[in-house]
């Protein structure tokens, strides 16, 4: 039995943050009913190519383990049906503009009168403050929230992360908050009103980069693939391609030097401790770079790993997905889709009692489960 089996989640969200949160809940066994506009559906249904027989890869990525019904909230009959579903739900999640659902009679205060145990989660662009009525899109949030200023090469332009990470982390925060509210409901019997703003979650996961500024008052800068406070902790170019090296402490540095035949670096007082290595970053990285350029990446990875130092290849997405570990881990699953036929999908990364939760339902076609209810 999956942990959230029997939990009813009404998903009124679109695009990524909300659907990512409900996918996490669905992976853990919740019954997720996704409500979509009858003509256009979720925006991501149209974000492509690529498409699998009309189904966009983007939509397929974040909507497994859900059912889909269509409803036009401007239609009185459809709106009444969604209200009825909300009265029977344990969780409602939405990302409409602030105040929109209140005007439709789907706001928290109205729904809690009929369903006092409802956990109601709103994903917004910005929390309370001057920007609270502005919409939030991942790219804008990455720009405004500071992450682009510390991403990319030191001499290059500010750079977004290669996936919509602000949306994804916001969805994870939303799932955590929902689970916490459900735990409290077990004790009090009362539901909760939760707001998870994209901008504030983006600030929260700045983590050490934000704290660097709060401690020093100095603006954090970009380091490309290097680490601002640990050296060597970056990519290096071998004779054929790049690999990643993550030296986490002084003992690992000494082991690295022995493994690559550079005991002279281990004995150099300039590199004896991590703070000294940070101070002398450029000289040390140049020395290691010259050494690593002499042999292929796989040779270095094998030697360095054998010395107990974290190290690995820089894989492309195909290389990562088709790696032996991925293939044996159960992270890729084949499902039968009503429109696209046999599809390979990513599964949940979580292990419950040692088992990876199944993909119980493929991503639904638009309105595939209309008329079914709970």
UniProtKB/TrEMBL annotation:
Keywords carried by this UniProt record: Transferase
InterPro entries named among the record's database cross-references: CoA-transferase_III_domain, CoA-Trfase_fam_III, CoA-Trfase_III_dom3_sf, CoA-Trfase_III_dom_1_sf
Keyword Transferase applies: yes
Origin: domain of life: Bacteria
A Pfam family per the record: CoA_transf_3
Keyword presence, Transferase: yes
Gene Ontology terms for molecular function: CoA-transferase activity
Region named Disordered: 354-374
Gene3D superfamilies the UniProt entry points to: Crotonobetainyl-coa:carnitine coa-transferase, domain 1, formyl-coa transferase, domain 3
Name the record gives this protein: CoA transferase
Source organism of this protein record: Rubrobacter taiwanensis
């Amino acid at each position: 039995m999956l942990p959230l089996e029997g939990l009813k989640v009404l998903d009124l969200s679109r695009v990524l943050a909300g659907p990512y949160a409900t996918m996490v809940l669905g992976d853990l066994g919740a019954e997720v009913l996704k409500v979509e506009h009858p003509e256009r559906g979720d925006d991501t249904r149209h974000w492509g190519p690529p498409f699998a027989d009309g189904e966009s890869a983007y939509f397929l990525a974040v909507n497994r383990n859900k059912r889909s019904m269509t409803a036009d909230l401007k239609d009185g009959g459809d709106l009444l049906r969604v209200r009825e579903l909300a009265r029977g739900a344990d969780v409602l999640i939405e990302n409409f503009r602030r105040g929109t659902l209140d005007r439709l009679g789907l706001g928290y205060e109205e729904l809690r009168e009929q369903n006092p145990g409802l956990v109601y989660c709103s994903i917004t662009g910005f929390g309370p403050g001057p920007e609270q009525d502005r919409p939030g899109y991942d790219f804008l949030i990455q720009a405004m929230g500071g992450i682009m200023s510390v991403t990319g090469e030191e001499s290059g332009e500010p750079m977004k992360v290669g996936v919509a990470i602000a949306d994804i982390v916001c969805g994870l925060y939303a799932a955590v908050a929902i689970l916490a509210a459900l735990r409290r409901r077990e004790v009090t019997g009362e539901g909760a009103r939760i707001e998870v703003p994209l901008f504030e979650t983006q600030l929260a996961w700045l983590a050490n980069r934000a704290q660097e500024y709060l401690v020093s008052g100095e603006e954090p800068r970009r380091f490309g693939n290097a680490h601002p406070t640990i050296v060597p902790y970056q990519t290096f170019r071998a004779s054929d391609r790049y690999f990643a090296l993550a030296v986490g402490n002084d003992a690992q540095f000494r082991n690295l030097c022995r493994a690559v035949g550079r005991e002279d670096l281990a004995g150099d007082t300039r590199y004896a401790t991590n703070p000294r290595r940070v101070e002398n970053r450029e000289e040390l990285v140049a020395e290691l770079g010259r050494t690593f350029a002499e042999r292929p990446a796989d040779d270095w990875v094998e030697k360095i790993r054998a010395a107990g130092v974290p190290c690995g290849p820089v894989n492309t997405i195909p290389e990562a997905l088709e790696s032996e570990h991925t293939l044996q881990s159960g992270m890729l699953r084949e499902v039968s889709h009503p429109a696209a036929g046999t599809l390979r999908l990513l599964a949940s990364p979580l292990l419950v009692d040692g088992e990876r939760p199944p993909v119980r339902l493929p991503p639904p076609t638009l309105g595939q489960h209309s008329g079914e209810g709970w």
